[in-house]
């Protein structure tokens, strides 16, 4: 492993940003003129990106078409960033307020963006474009001291940025920790990233698990094909656990930072041509295995933000049925959160910031549903007939964003494995 301190690069002079982020818990929204809106009982008008307000039981069509790709939302839930690809295959990054007003271009050529948790800094990056940090909304952009080719950047609760660089199939993959001012420390080199998933041709391999910060921002977890690593800022990365017979796909911290849920791929018992996914819960310090959720679904597991309770989908996309389930951090009380449904969770699911609700999408019914995490009581809060709902995310305690696009669901083949808990 290599550690290397690098100073921030040159200050750029472009990318004017105009609108400040507000504060506090947002209430109702009055849509700008010409912006479609309606109560949750009214179906949305097809494609687009929609803001769902649970406090007023209503929605606003912030972006009108699917080709305006949602990239990021400010932590206060007031501003949305999106990108548009032109005919010349170049991307433009835009911002718009959640009432549909004040659309403006932020940058050319940048594909991705991420706000710091306090909303004061925006990180943007893209193909052949350097990682750039901007004091939001109107600070001077600063080019961070990391190589071009950023694959992913993830902010910590302490407003420090973890950055993966390098092409997916390249051996030159590095992990940097970047300060808000743009200085960078290289904490892991290409030797840690040997590929992802089950055995594939060398040209198809790539890093699987994205970096994830512990809730207190003290450590970072990430993974290559067969190992989970942790790193503390200022120290070298270390191997926490190895999984030699499976492919690591994800890592997720419990709210107290004591546990890691590791999503792993293996060959399905019913048909070895397909992958099945298990979740292995380990001690985040000692790597001791606590339990394994066998047949635990295709999507990444998510811990509650307030207690050690794990949320996951009980069946994978190739199964005929899916069901959101919960399990305690000690492996007890495996229980369903939702009823079983045909179809899949293409749009995903997620905890509300206060851990009181889970939002989920259904391809079968074209709806977004809010589920009470304690009682399982459901409320349909959004419906877009004929659309596939993607990119579901909470942007505040009572606000959700979802993108509706065209298409059909083809996940209809059963592999016949039931979800169960297995202890060591």
What would you note in describing this structure?
This protein is mainly β. It has a domain at 243-342 and 409-424. The protein is 0% helix and 44% strand. The chain is built from no helices and 37 strands. The protein has strands at residues 4-6, 37-39, 48-53, 58-63, 69-73, 79-85, 91-97, 104-108, 112-115, 121-126, 129-135, 142-143, 150-155, 161-165, 174-178, 184-188, 212-213, 220-223, 227-231, 238-242, 247-253, 259-267, 275-283, 289-294, 302-303, 309-313, 321-322, 324-328, 335-336, 341-342, 349-351, 357-362, 367-372, 378-383, 388-396, 399-405, 420-422. The protein has a 5-stranded antiparallel β-sheet, with no helix packed on it. Strands 2-4-3-36-35 form a 5-stranded antiparallel β-sheet, with no helix packed on it. It has a 5-stranded antiparallel β-sheet with strand order 21-22-23-24-37, with no helix packed on it. A hairpin with a 7-residue loop joins strand 22 (259-267) and strand 23 (275-283).
